[in-house]
């Protein structure tokens, strides 16, 4: 049984004082929420304070990026053991904004995945197609190779140590959410691909999230799909009230 994960990727929003204010409200709001795992991915500068503030609560902390080397002359980069020290339980790898603006490739994604797993940090690996590819019916031809390349030479014990996020690029920050049925179809195919690469057990254990314009009013329909195990939320995760409403989707009557 996969435990639902609701993840908030703040991108380049919320400095340290805004982070503290967010948690002052959010920790109280989610105090009594059961049956869902919550993770927040603040910018690097807010990670320490976020981790201190959420210690002993049900909120997990993750980073938005990582380098694959342990240490070295890599100006501006952060290593897996630096994230572990904070401690970060998760790290987002291969977000489409990093692929698009910072030359992240399937090869660097794979290096990062292998590096963080050695430190017991769970990667949230992002995959997804752009609008042109979707319109040309190329979604699976784009997404499944991204999955395979991310997992090249990756040994998995149970599947619980990694998470995938299917984020159609055309749905990110646009207000155009994929239909739950379309998201389910792609996510089901990702799970099938993982089964071919590993086995059924691992495929059934891996959580696969949907991301792209998730809001309090569309979360319920998404979470009703069999293979959607949670969401990766951008814009709507920066405000404590709206992110709380997404985390509390079960109160809208989702089984
Ligand atoms: O990482 C989150 C995704 O890019 C989704 O962002 P969004 O919810 O603002 O569309």
From TrEMBL:
Specify the signal sequence span: none
The alphabetized list of GO BP terms reads: gluconeogenesis; glyceraldehyde-3-phosphate biosynthetic process; glycerol catabolic process; glycolytic process
Q: Which CDD domains does this chain map to?
A: TIM (cd00311)
Q: Name one GO molecular function term.
A: triose-phosphate isomerase activity
Entry annotation: catalytic residues: 95 (electrophile), 167 (proton acceptor)
Q: What is its EC number?
A: 5.3.1.1
Report the main location listed first in the record.
cytoplasm
Q: Name one GO cellular component term.
A: cytosol
Top enzyme class of this protein?
isomerase
Binding residues for substrate: 9-11, 173, 213, 234-235
Q: Which reaction does it catalyse?
A: D-glyceraldehyde 3-phosphate = dihydroxyacetone phosphate
Could you describe the subunit structure of this protein?
Homodimer.
Q: What does this protein do?
A: Involved in the gluconeogenesis. Catalyzes stereospecifically the conversion of dihydroxyacetone phosphate (DHAP) to D-glyceraldehyde-3-phosphate (G3P).
Sequence similarity: Belongs to the triosephosphate isomerase family.
Protein name (record): Triosephosphate isomerase
What is the protein's species of origin?
Answer: Thermovenabulum gondwanense
């Amino acid at each position: 049984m996969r435990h639902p994960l609701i993840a908030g990727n703040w991108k380049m929003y919320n400095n340290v004082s805004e982070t503290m204010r967010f948690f002052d409200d959010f920790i109280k709001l989610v105090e009594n929420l059961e049956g869902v795992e919550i993770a927040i991915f603040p910018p690097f500068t807010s990670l320490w304070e976020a981790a201190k503030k959420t210690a002993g609560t049900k909120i997990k902390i993750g980073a938005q990026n990582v380098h694959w080397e342990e240490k070295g002359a890599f100006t501006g980069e952060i290593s897996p053991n630096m994230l572990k020290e904070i401690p970060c339980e998760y790290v987002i790898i291969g977000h489409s904004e990093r692929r698009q603006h910072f030359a992240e490739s399937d090869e660097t994604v794979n290096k990062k995945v292998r590096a963080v797993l050695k430190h017991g940090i769970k990667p949230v690996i992002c995959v997804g197609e752009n609008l042109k590819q979707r319109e040309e019916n190329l979604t699976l031809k784009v997404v499944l190779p991204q999955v395979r390349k991310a997992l090249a030479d990756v040994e998995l014990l149970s599947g619980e140590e990694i998470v995938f996020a299917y984020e159609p690029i055309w749905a990110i920050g646009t207000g155009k959410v994929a239909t739950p049925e379309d998201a389910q179809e792609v996510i089901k195919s990702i799970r099938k691909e993982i089964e071919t690469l590993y086995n059924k057990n691992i495929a059934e254990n891996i959580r696969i999230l949907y991301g792209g314009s998730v809001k309090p009013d569309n979360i319920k329909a998404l979470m009703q799909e069999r293979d959607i195990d949670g969401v990766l939320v951008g814009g709507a995760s920066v405000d404590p009230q709206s992110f709380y409403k997404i985390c509390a989707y079960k109160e809208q009557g989702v089984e």
